[in-house]
Amino acid sequence: MLRPTGWKASALLAALLLTACSSTPLPPWPAAPTARTSAPTAAPRPQPGAVVPAPLGQAPLPPAQPQGAIASPLPPPAPLVVQNEGPMAPPYGAAVAARFPDPTVVYSTPGLGRDRRAFTTNAELSQWLQSLADPAPRGATRTKLLNLGMSQRGEPIVGLLATRAAGTEPVNLDNSGRPTVVLVGQQHGDEPAGSEALLVISRELVQGLLEPLLDRINVVVVPRANPDGAAAGTRVTANGVDMNRDHLLLQTPEARALAKVVNDYRPILVVDAHEYTVVGRYLQKFNAIQRYDALLQYTTTANYPEFLTKASHEWYHLPMTAALKAQGLTSDWYYTTSTNPDDKRISMGGTQPDTGRNVNGLKNAVSLLIETRGVGIGRMHIQRRVHSQVTAITSALRTTAERAANLEQVRSFVVRDVSAQACRDQVVVEAAATPTQRELDFLDPETGADKLIRVEWNSSLALQAVKTRARPCGYWLSANSTAAVERLRLLGLQVMRVAEPGSALADIYRETARESGNRQDVIGTIAGGAGIVRVQVSPVRSAIDVPAGSFYVPLNQPRANLAVAALEPDTQNSYFANHLIQDLTQAARVMAPPSLVFEETN
């Protein structure tokens, strides 16, 4: 606990926001609930020649106009080249295509029309959500169109809230006693199935078969997080950044918009809908084609609470794979391979705290990645791809409804336990996947038959601690570290300003080696990142002066592990490596509860 010697009223207020540094007893693991309902929902398949009805039977309203664009510190966007999603040459023959028949349901969205050449436009998406956002409650159900911000090209990033709380403000959802789920689609613009599926899900939540779930949960749907990339048919945002590697640095307005959603609504579950490369590197390296309908993964990064991992696996992953199997859909762990043609290793999703999956996990949520087979195959199998997403997302929603009380119990324990670890034990600064081997099923490109291949496999389910240190009580930042302070607050961390000069026992960073480079993930160099500075450091214990106007980031707060990810300088995602902190002397690890006076800041 911070122990100040002299407090202003505002300092006392800040102290009360911090939880006590005491050990938290491990609760018993909750017992299984009643049997699950099955069957994901979808619109019924029409008879041949029938007209698929419009989603609401009413004329769409004009698209919403979100207020206030978020400025981006990155270079301006490149010229937009809109991609035509018309017919393309199939990347494989009839034998492979026959392995992926259409489902027995047909999904109806603007982009899934039989004669469509393009997927749902952002204007159509906004109209769809606005038509569902009735200002008056629909019976017990309330809806609200969420204006989340603007893309770099000025396109609205919109979402839909569906709830049966007394109102649609975050405080109403908190008071409802129901956990909130956030569903996100199309962070990568060339991965459309998630966005189309979330339009289906939004309709079913408001006026369909999923609406009864709102008796137990609140849901926020953000179908398209990267409107510019979707318009251009590219993975990246308009200025060339992979926004799904930007959730710790928060350089793009698109990533900031998602951060604000998570901060405002504090979801117990975040689902991130993507698609993966089907042919490409796999045909080149293994003469094989990707087989699975869906690849799945939950948070796998250093310092993710053990109980959330357990909940992710037992309560979400296992039922989701069962739900997919019941629909005749195949699944496996998410994996990818690098762009280097000579590197035949297969890696699960990364361990770095930069993706939405991992950063939202460190915000003490269950955070799930759902990837369907889609990149590089245009509109092929689009109904099946959407069906895979709807099936998996529906399973996650039902788990949350059934496990609402259990999940709140787990989160209550986790936020207290993370806060209580300040000043105690060790913290993992950097972790890596564990190399092993396994057999993977692919498809033969000629015959379409299963093709079993033994591969070198990097498992993110078993992390190796590369670097550990004593966990500090908090971090001191110099007064000119305002860029870093801004990002930390956008992550939902409490940062306190020092009101009066003082001192603290700290570890300062002594540099032992330095090199320049680029951020890397398991695929290769991350798109859109500026060069980073990779340093090696040795912590040196010292008494430091703490000037008025400098900052303190306490670790006795629930999202403390995000501060570790951002502020330990010798990792590729750190704020020092990425130039948000300019010098090692601007930060220190505070190793004993400081006696400091703080003032309230905006």
Topology of this structure?
Blueprint: H1 9-16, H2 94-97, H3 122-132, E1 142-150, E2 156-163, H4 170-176, E3 180-185, H5 193-207, E4 218-222, H6 227-232, H7 253-265, E5 269-277, H8 280-286, E6 289-290, E7 294-298, H9 306-326, E8 331-333, E9 335-336, E10 346-348, H10 356-362, E11 366-375, H11 382-402, H12 404-420, E12 426-443, E13 450-470, E14 474-477, H13 482-490, E15 496-498, E16 502-517, E17 532-546, E18 551-554, H14 560-567, E19 587-590, E20 598-599
Parallel strand pairs: 3-4, 3-5, 5-11, 7-8, 10-13
Antiparallel strand pairs: 1-2, 2-4, 6-12, 7-11, 9-10, 12-13, 14-18, 14-19, 15-18, 15-20, 16-17, 16-19
Polypeptide structure, described:
The protein has 602 residues and is an alpha+beta fold. It has three domains: 9-25 and 472-599, no CATH class; 94-420, Zn peptidases (Aminopeptidase), CATH 3.40.630.10; 430-465, no CATH class. It has 14 helices and 20 strands. The strands form three sheets. It has an eight-stranded mixed beta sheet, sandwiched between helices. A hairpin with a 5-residue loop joins strand 1 (142-150) and strand 2 (156-163). Helix 3 packs parallel to helix 5 and helix 5 (193-207) crosses helix 11 (382-402). The longest helix is centred in the middle third of the chain and has 21 residues, at 306-326. It is globular and about 70 Å long.
CATH architecture of the largest domain: 3-Layer(aba) Sandwich
Shape call: globular
Describe the strand arrangement of the main beta sheet, using strand numbers. Answer: 1-2-4-3-5-11-7-8
At CATH level 3, the topology of the largest domain is Aminopeptidase
Give start-end ranges of low-pLDDT stretches.
Answer: 1-26, 34-73
- CATH class categorisation of the largest domain: Alpha Beta
Decide which structural class fits the backbone: alpha+beta
How would you sum up the major sheet? 8 strands, mixed
What is the CATH homology-level superfamily of the largest domain? Zn peptidases
Helix content: 25-40%
- Counting DSSP H or I runs of 4 or more residues, the number of helices is 14
